[in-house]
Each structure stands twice: as C-alpha cells, then as structure tokens.
Amino acid sequence: MITINKKRFVIHLIILLSIAIVLSIIMVFFSKENLSLDSLPEFFLQTSSSIFLLIAPPIYFNIYWLIPNFLVKKKYLVYGVIVIVLVVVWGYVLGFGEPWIDRNWFNKADEKPNYGVGVIGTVLLLIITTLLHIAYRWFIQLSTIKQIENDQLHLELSSLKNQINPHFFFNTLNNLYALSLEKSDQTPSVILKLSEMMRYTIYDCKEQEVSIGGELTYIENFIALQKVRHHKRGVITLKNQISNANIKIAPMILIVFVENAFKHGFDLLDKKAFINVSLKNDDDTLHFYIENNFNNSIEEQKKGIGLENVKRRLALIYPNTHELKIVKNEKLFSVDLKLYL
C-alpha cells in the first residue's frame, strides 16, 4: 500500500514545478521565435502537463510501489516482469500521449506519435530513477547504522565508566577503614581527600573529557591515601612533567593503571616495594609510564576487571590514536601509554 506523506508531497510538487520552470526558460531561450518572455506561460503549461501526466506517474509508481515491494524484498523476477510490462504499456502512452497533448492542447500540428521514443524514454526514466532511489536508500541506511553505532558506543562507554567508580571506592574505603582501626591523626585529612575524589568522579567525570590537571590531582590524592596506609612497605614516586594542565583527556583512564600497580604489586609485598609513575606531554602527545615490582610466587586467583576495562575504553575512545605497551617479566610490571591528542 502506498502511503502519502504531506510534507514529502509538497516537496516533490515544488521540485516538479521547479523543473518545469527551468525547462520552460530553456525552451524560450532556444525557440525559433524572437527571444521573449511572452511565450513562457505557454511553455510552462506544456512542460508541466508532460511532467505531471506522462513522466511523473511511472517514476513514482516505480519508487513507491515496485522498489519497496519487490526489489528491496529481492523478488527480482517479479520486479523484472512488471518493469517490462510497464515499459511496453507506458512506452505506448508516452510515445502517443506527448504528441497528442502538443497537437490538441498547444496547436503543435507537426508533432507525430513515436512509439520507439516512448519506449526508450520510459526505460531511461526507470533506470535513472531506480539508481538514484537505491543510492538514496543506501545513504539513509548508512546514516541510520552510523547513528546506531554511535548510540551503542556512548552506551558502552557510559557502562565502562560506571564500572570504574565502585572498583576504586571499595579500595579507598578499605584504606580508610584501616586508618580508623589505627586511630590515626591523619584520618580527617584522608576523609577530606576522599571527599575531593568523590566529588571529582561524581561531577567532573560526567563529561566526555577532563583536564589532565584534574586527573593528576586525583592520582596524587590516591597515592597520598596509599602512602598513609603503606608507608613502611616501600617507595612511591610521581614525576610530573606536564607543561599544560588544560590538556583534555578521557576521565578515569590513567588511575586504573595506578590502582593495578598497588593491587597486584605494592599491596602484596611486605617491604622493598616500589611504584614509579611518570607523566609528561610533548606537542600533541601525552606520555604516561608506570612500573612496579611484584612477588611472582604469589598467584592471583581473581583477575580484576580494571585492566581489561581500560583497554576497551582506549580502543573505543582513541582508535588508532594511542599506543599501549604492557610488559611483565619475573619481577617487574610496566605500562607505557601514549595518547595522540
């Protein structure tokens, strides 16, 4: 069943009238009589009658009924048979109708029926309009698929970001719990730092990008909390060589590697543990490096989601614009990340 959209009908009507006007002007320009706009109304009526009565019907019959019901549904044989019948029938209508209209409506006595011209004209109309309509449908389909992919990408990134926050806060709340058991005087400052970090993750990280300065402050607060708890286990260094704190990156990317270094290295060593973190920028490149030692004899029974999570986020947010190298040997684990911003 053919459905008519009022807005589309008006647009097509305007297009057909515009074509008629253009053709009328061309006919005036190439007419044998003296160049005059007096003949423009007659030429406009002549072209309009041909377009609306003889040219438009097979075009719209093809694109609004034949293509959706047969060609799109891969009923090629039925589509081909109907097109052949349409060419034969409408070729006759076009070949005889155009001269008849010119003779009887516009006094063009020299116009004679031409069935061959009608058939060729109908074939060309169907071929051109079919190709254009298929190209249009293909473009619309690609646009729809692209929109669906973008929506899925945003949904997946949102889901991945939501996985990060609980993973981090479980760790920091454990740190705070340990300090409260020790009745440490640093507990109030730790609560303040934790509050700042929660504010950052809840409000700032809603944006698609945050400043590297905000990420650095977050990492520094995290390391400060860990130093309070593990000050006797080893040494933690953070080398900051960022020259522009306003550089924008995706939130909560770097902290995952820092958390991983503590969880699988520092937390499992009684002494001589170390974590070295370095962060610098050069032109349009952000370079992050972290290394930590670990006890290879301790087998981890559970594999955390953090590292796989950040790999997936990097692949989604920075496709072909990042380099991630993870090296693990007997005693050292290192991550070398470059973001090309």
In short:
By secondary structure, the chain is α+β, with helices and mostly antiparallel strands. The chain folds into 2 domains: 6-113, no CATH class; 153-340, Histidine kinase-like ATPase, C-terminal domain (Heat Shock Protein 90, 2-Layer Sandwich).
Task: Write the SSE topology.
Layout: H1 6-30, H2 40-71, H3 76-106, H4 115-182, H5 187-202, E1 210-211, H6 212-230, E2 234-241, E3 248-249, H7 254-264, E4 273-282, E5 285-293, H8 306-317, E6 322-328, E7 332-340
Parallel strand pairs: 2-4
Antiparallel strand pairs: 1-3, 4-5, 5-7, 6-7
Helix pairs in contact: 1-2, 2-3, 2-4, 3-4, 4-5, 4-6, 4-8, 5-6, 6-7
Write structural notes for this entry:
There is one protein chain. The chain has helices at residues 6-30, 40-71, 76-106, 115-182, 187-202, 212-230, 254-264, 306-317; strands at residues 210-211, 234-241, 248-249, 273-282, 285-293, 322-328, 332-340. By secondary structure, it is of the alpha+beta class. It has two domains: 6-113, no CATH class; 153-340, 2-Layer Sandwich (Heat Shock Protein 90). The radius of gyration is 36 Å and the shape is rod-shaped. It is built from eight helices and seven strands, in the order αααααβαββαββαββ. The chain has a five-stranded mixed beta sheet, with helices on one face. The mean pLDDT is 81. α4 (115-182) runs antiparallel to α8 and α6 runs parallel beside α7 (254-264).
